[in-house]
Design brief:
- By secondary structure, the protein is an all-alpha fold.
- 81% of the residues lie in helices and 0% in strands.
- It has helices at 3-31, 35-42, 49-61, 66-91, 99-121, 128-150, 156-183, 187-197.
- The longest helix has 29 residues, at 3-31.
Length: 198
């Protein structure tokens, strides 16, 4: 394997195993109706966690039903974790047998994590381990797409597009993290500041 494949294998492996674990540790408390525990796992850096915990107490005391959505969310986390493990431990090593499957599943990881990145990480609610996962996912995608483009599996423009997008995602996210670190503000603290002034 070349350097790009090795980097992709390591990053997909770390991201995949972490998401298999995240899926399991989301499903288990959800089945026990511990809804706030699930929320804290997804948005653990939210600045108003104590208030949100109080709001969840009513849902946890209500008849079960909401918890099934959290179980489904856990399954949705488990699925891309399994896909990333398949990429890391099998497909990248056998790219010549399954080149387009490798490419499509690589894009699946790109979208899976970056939807979370835009919705949660950019708002400043992602816990530190989830912040790191954004970089693992995007580095893996960038390296694997580069490798598949280099091997003429995909068109040059497609390869360039899906190398630029992960790079932009990481760059923009890094700028947000640095800005947040310097100012100490998240989306909700900025919103509450506006509300308080009004």
């Amino acid at each position: 394997m070349n350097a790009a494949q090795w980097i992709a294998v390591i990053c997909f492996g770390l991201w995949g195993l972490a998401h298999v674990a995240f899926g399991i540790f989301t499903i288990l408390p959800a089945t026990q109706n511990k809804l706030f525990e699930v929320y804290k796992g997804v948005c653990g850096a939210h600045p108003n966690l104590s208030e949100i915990e109080q709001a969840f107490k009513a849902l946890e005391a209500a008849p079960r039903g909401v918890n099934r959505l959290f179980v489904q969310h856990g399954c949705n986390i488990f699925k891309p974790g399994f896909i990333a493990c398949a990429l890391s431990f099998y497909l990248i090593n056998n790219w010549d047998k399954y080149p387009f499957v490798t490419f499509v599943l690589t894009l699946d990881i790109f979208f899976d994590h970056n939807f979370y990145g835009v919705a949660v990480d950019w708002a400043g609610y992602a816990p530190p381990v989830a912040n790191a996962m954004l970089y693992f996912a995007n580095i893996a995608v960038l390296c694997e797409v580069y490798d598949l483009k280099d091997k003429n599996v995909i068109a040059d423009w497609v390869g360039i597009l899906f190398m630029v997008l992960p790079a932009c995602m990481m760059a923009f996210t890094t700028v947000l993290h640095v800005k947040r670190l310097l100012t100490g503000k998240t989306e909700s603290s900025e919103t509450s500041g506006v509300t308080n002034e009004a």
